[in-house]
Design a protein that fits this description.
heterotrimer; A alpha/beta; B alpha/beta; C alpha/beta; A: alpha/beta; 2 domains; 11 helices; 11 strands; C: Rossmann fold; Rossmann fold; seven-stranded mixed sheet
Chain lengths: ~325, ~350, ~425
């Protein structure tokens, strides 16, 4: 059963109005691939024209990225970015905590990768309209041996915007895998993941509250931009890269028996330089932990380096 | 404090790096680990100035307004000796820019205008220093400029998406040499960057990874004390481009040395050099399969099955040729440990 | 907190440098020299210029040779703690690109000092990656002497033609054209003062025509070094308000995304908009100190009676034009001449005011352009909306001589050509 907003959008699309999508998430979440596959599926179906493009930056794995899609019946003349999407996707919950992924949407369709049910997710992110959620990290881990949500979100997007058949999505997914020269096994695993995910999408129509607004960001102007982009140092201390770590996982250091020998391998192998230690008379130094909550990207090098296994990756939220 | 002197790298671990957290470098990036440790080595009581080429290590650490990931310690320096400056100009000339700073500081010092010394470190990727920037690197060395040049080698143009560079291991996948039915990956053998730096006249040349902290510390300290150009090549496993699982960067950096693809090498002008962390006996040497298997850029050649490497059927020849290249590479570098300008 | 980072002022005191400068001239003298020599002499008289960087290319090479000859003859050697050191150095690099990169490092290291080089043609093109960076950098203490020479090697030509200068109009530098040795010498002295003004902080590119000016000798006045220092030091702040790499704790050359890039270009443009007023003020000071006019945006000749026909030209050939027009005015023709000096930022408003009474303007271009000429386009834009017809001429490309006959022809053509036309003129013939 299609809900009313969904019906309305499809009807609009048929009348010749364009439909705008915007996706937010972390680099490495597979966001670009999801949009590429969906765009190809819709495009090959033949009724609609599709534009798909990323916001281009030098973002590395773990940084926030954004992608756009525009679907329409006739030639698509509009080339500007999507400010007020009809459909907003969220690939990484942490991104949703850092930026307003629903900015510019008062009522719309939302697709989220989260373990929450649609009603809970709507509450958390103050969303009004139709909300679709799928537990993408779990499904990715199960089918692709990696907590990557791209295929599950593709399934949820297909549910949210049924413009093409499942077979057409499967076909486009396979084609994309071949283009990326994925091994056959991986292509098959993607397909399995897609079909399984379709069954696990939760959805809800949410009335929400009037106060749940998502205003457009306002332009702050260029006044005060430093000459030649010269700057002071250390501004990265406000860029809390702990958000790069996989959702729901964190590093812990436990040394109740005071076994740390001060060998320093964790310190010199830490890419972020965030291992904490204190001077120690016998050992030179003694490690006491790491600044996990602010900067740990969970690269696991300290876990690998420590001869006494004092570091561990565990389930748990950052503080 | 303990009577016993700590291993130098353990002392080094306690220094204050000029590289700060909060960069947008990938999770488990070796460039980040290298920056932390070179950054600690420069905490030696002398004001430090860095120059940067354009590479991952620059665009992910010098990004206005919120990702300038540099500065010694978390607070603004209160002592000149602890202060730090950094400049990025263009892709290919970190060492030439460094030379401009060096000469200016020198003349100011010699004429009594500048009261305290500085040290200059030029950082680039292998693309920036050995491909498009080879001219800049070799001429700075040739002019004997007193700068330390750090070259982070990840075997391709990682910043633009892993295109072939002159340092790429034979038969590796790059985005411009995709293996398929026609070619089995990159067909070129790497350029001998260590030899070039030596022959251009560098006072000190090292190829060493922070995976070997003792050697890395030694190399940084020796380089910074040189009165002419010192070059440190840092083999840098690239998680995004080499495509391996998190937590294996240090392991792969060790394997790169032990297999002979990037053996640890230290050589000071006029003194015997040393090859480390690689067996000189090819039979005793770690087989390259151990290095290739964990990386998906060699997936067309080797797979990892239950933690053990297995050669893809029909690709035995390519694997043997990589092994041969590694063996010859060790031989070449071994000769270079004894090579000096007459 | 200072958005640019902090400064450790006590570490650097430039007074020793100023004191240890060995002057080339202690009183005003009249000397005979070519253009490269005039530029080199001026360059060597700055106490703020301790290092000169270079790579030889015709026709700018003689600047580098002369600088090197003076320095390597020990002309600036001083004794420092019982040791002989040269207070000036020359840095010979392996390519023009390296020269530009080197200047970035040096100029960023100490922003109160002036770092100079000279180049031409493809040499400037080879620097392009870095000259475009420098233009945006805020490093106003870089001076690049552009000795104009034809670009593009099909065919190769080593003679003067400003196509190199025009190709770099958008690099973000201040570009000034000189003609004659006195202008070259005076411009070299004045221009760094404009570039290093805290409101401007834009590198400067004084230029003169290769061969026609670089290799032709003339008499000109040289000023005592002390007077030059007095002039420059009265306008250049003792401390640059922005931290340099040595005294500062700072980051230069950051990356940004498209969300911010435009903001930096907006900021850069605002500084460029300051150039004309800062230049004019410094010219006033220059005239007070030296008794000769400083840099003007353009020279206007015979414009007092608002002549209906005006030629706009630049460079040394304007001298011939001056003589031809002077003669024809004696015969009763009302003709005017405007000679452009400030190429970037182009003084459009002032030019519009000067040209507003003209009926026909003939703009003489010495560089190849795909349409009616760079200068024609700039002048047409300046007078747009006024009832003025602009005509483009191409003459003197690749340093070709522009003879009296050619100037006569161009003047004749002013009343013949249709609006918007452009013609090549050589040896009195029109093509």
């Amino acid at each position: 059963m299609m809900a009313s907003l969904q019906k309305e959008l499809v009807a609009q699309l048929k009348k010749g109005e364009a439909l705008d999508l915007r996706a937010d998430g972390k680099a490495g979440s597979g966001l670009v691939m999801t949009l590429q596959v969906f765009a190809e599926a819709v495009s090959l179906e033949g009724t609609y024209q599709v534009q798909e493009w990323p916001f281009f930056s030098s973002a590395r794995k773990g940084a926030n990225v954004r992608g756009f899609m525009r679907v329409g019946k006739g030639p698509l003349f509009m080339t500007c970015q999507v400010e007020s999407p009809h459909v907003a996707l969220l690939f990484t919950e942490k991104t949703g905590e850092e930026i307003d992924f629903a900015s510019g949407v008062s009522k719309g369709i939302f697709v989220l990768n989260t373990a929450y049910h649609a009603i809970e997710a709507a509450q958390k992110f103050r969303l009004r309209g139709e909300v679709f959620t799928v537990s993408g990290d779990r499904l990715g881990q199960e089918y692709l041996h990696h907590p990557i949500p791209n295929i599950s979100v593709l399934a949820a997007l297909h549910k949210a915007l049924p413009l093409v058949s499942v077979q057409q999505v499967v076909q486009a997914l396979k084609h994309n895998g071949e283009k990326r020269r994925l091994p056959l096994k991986a292509i098959q695993a993607n397909q399995d993941c897609l079909l399984a995910s379709l069954k696990e999408v939760s959805s809800a129509v949410v009335q929400g509250e009037e106060a749940w607004e998502h205003p457009l960001p306002s332009f702050a102007g260029y006044e005060g931009y430093p000459i030649g982009a010269q700057s002071a140092l250390r501004s990265s201390l406000q860029n809390l890269t702990a958000n790069y770590a996989r959702t729901g996982r964190r590093l812990v250091f436990q040394d109740p028996q005071d076994r740390c020998t001060g060998c320093s391998l964790c310190i010199v192998n830490c890419p972020e330089g965030i291992i904490q230690f204190v001077p120690d008379e016998k050992r030179g130094i003694r490690v006491t932990g790491a600044d996990v909550n602010h900067f740990c990207k969970l690269c696991r090098e300290c876990i690998e380096a420590c001869p006494l296994d004092l570091f561990e990756e565990v389930e748990g939220a950052l503080v | 404090m303990s009577e016993k002197r700590l291993a130098p790298f353990m002392e080094m671990a306690q220094k204050e790096s000029c590289f700060r957290p909060g960069s947008t470098l990938c999770v488990d990036c070796m460039e980040s680990i290298a920056f932390q440790n070179v950054g600690r080595a420069t905490d030696n009581g002398i004001k430090t100035i860095y120059t940067m080429g354009t590479f991952c290590g620059e665009v992910s650490t010098l990004l206005w307004p919120t990702v300038v990931a540099w500065g010694r310690g978390d607070q603004e320096a209160t002592q000149f000796e602890k202060s730090f400056s950094i400049i990025h100009n263009v892709f290919e000339s970190a060492s030439t820019v460094a030379e401009g700073i060096r000469d200016t500081a020198d003349i100011l010092l010699e004429l009594g205008a500048l009261k305290k010394p500085i040290q200059v470190v030029a950082n680039s990727g292998d693309g920036g220093a050995l491909v498009i920037g080879l001219r800049s690197l070799l001429h700075t060395i040739h002019r004997r400029s007193r700068v330390t040049v750090v070259v982070l080698i990840n075997e391709f143009f990682a910043n633009t998406g892993f295109q072939y560079a002159v340092t790429a291991t034979p038969y590796s996948e790059t985005s411009t040499t995709p293996p398929g039915d026609f070619i089995p990956g990159n067909l070129e053998e790497p350029m001998n960057h260590v030899g070039l730096a030596l022959m251009a006249g560098a006072e000190f040349v090292a190829q060493v990874s922070p995976a070997f902290p003792k050697d890395f510390t030694e190399a940084c300290e020796r380089a910074l004390s040189c009165s002419e150009t010192a070059v440190i090549f840092v083999p840098s496993p690239c998680i995004a481009g080499w495509k391996f699982k998190e937590g294996r960067t240090i392991e792969l950096a060790k394997l790169a040395s032990e297999t002979g693809l990037f053996p640890t090498f230290l050589k000071e002008k006029g003194k015997a050099g040393s090859l480390r962390h690689v067996s000189l006996d090819s039979k005793q040497r770690t087989p390259i399969l151990r290095f290739l298997a964990p990386q998906r850029r060699f997936h067309h050649l080797v797979h990892e099955k239950n933690g053990e490497p297995a050669v893809v059927k029909g690709r035995e020849k390519e694997v043997a040729l990589i092994q041969d290249w590694a063996n010859r590479n060790v031989q070449t570098l071994q000769r270079l440990t004894a090579w000096d300008v007459a | 907190m200072n958005p640019y980072g902090s400064i450790f002022p006590e570490v650097l005191d430039l007074e020793p440098l100023r004191k240890k400068h060995i002057p080339l001239y202690r009183r005003q003298e009249r000397i005979q020299m070519d253009g490269n020599g005039a530029a080199a002499i001026a360059s060597l008289q700055f106490w703020r210029a301790p290092i000169y960087a270079g790579f030889p290319i015709t026709p700018s090479t003689k600047w580098l040779e002369m600088i090197s000859t003076y320095i390597n003859a020990g002309r600036f050697v001083v004794e420092e703690n019982g040791r002989k050191v040269s207070a000036k150095r020359v840095k010979l690099l392996e390519a023009e690109h390296a020269v530009a990169d080197y200047l970035v490092g040096a100029a960023a290291a100490c922003r109160e000092l002036i770092f100079m080089t000279a180049t031409s043609s493809v040499g400037l093109d080879h620097m392009t990656e870095t000259t475009r960076s420098l233009g945006a950098s805020g490093l106003g203490n870089v001076v690049l002497i552009n000795v104009y020479r034809a670009t593009a090697n099909y065919p190769l030509c080593i003679e003067g033609d400003p196509s190199d200068a025009f190709a770099h109009r958008d690099d973000g530098w201040i570009q000034v054209v000189c003609r004659g040795k006195q202008q070259i010498y005076d411009t070299l002295i004045q221009l760094p003062v404009v570039g290093m003004d805290p409101r401007v902080l834009i590198p400067t590119m004084p230029g003169y025509y290769g061969i026609k000016d670089s290799h032709r000798s003339e008499p000109f006045f040289v000023e005592p070094d002390s007077k030059i220092h007095e002039f420059q030091d009265s306008l250049i702040p003792w401390r640059c308000p922005l931290p340099g790499l040595i005294v500062g704790e700072t980051a230069m050359g950051n990356c940004v995304t498209s969300a911010h890039f435009q903001g930096f270009k907006w900021e850069q443009k605002k500084r460029m908009d300051q150039v004309l007023s800062v230049l004019t003020a410094s010219s006033k000071k220059f005239e007070e100190v030296f008794g000769r006019p400083g840099i003007v945006p353009f020279e206007a000749y015979f414009m007092e009676d608002r002549p209906p026909r005006v030629l706009v030209a630049m460079g040394p050939d304007a001298g011939t034009a001056y003589e031809v027009i002077r003669r024809r005015r004696k015969e009763g023709e009302r003709l005017g001449l405007v000679v452009v000096r400030l190429l970037t930022p182009f003084p459009s408003s002032l030019l519009r005011e000067a040209l507003k009474s003209a009926g026909v303007i003939g703009v003489v271009n010495n560089a190849f352009h795909s349409e009616r000429g760079h200068l024609t386009a700039l002048v047409s834009e300046a007078v747009s909306g006024l009832p003025i017809q602009t005509t483009g001429f191409f003459a003197g490309l690749g340093g070709a001589d522009i003879s009296v006959r050619s100037w006569e022809k161009m003047i004749d053509l002013l009343s013949v050509l249709k609006p918007g036309e452009s013609r090549f003129v050589h040896e009195g013939e029109v093509l």
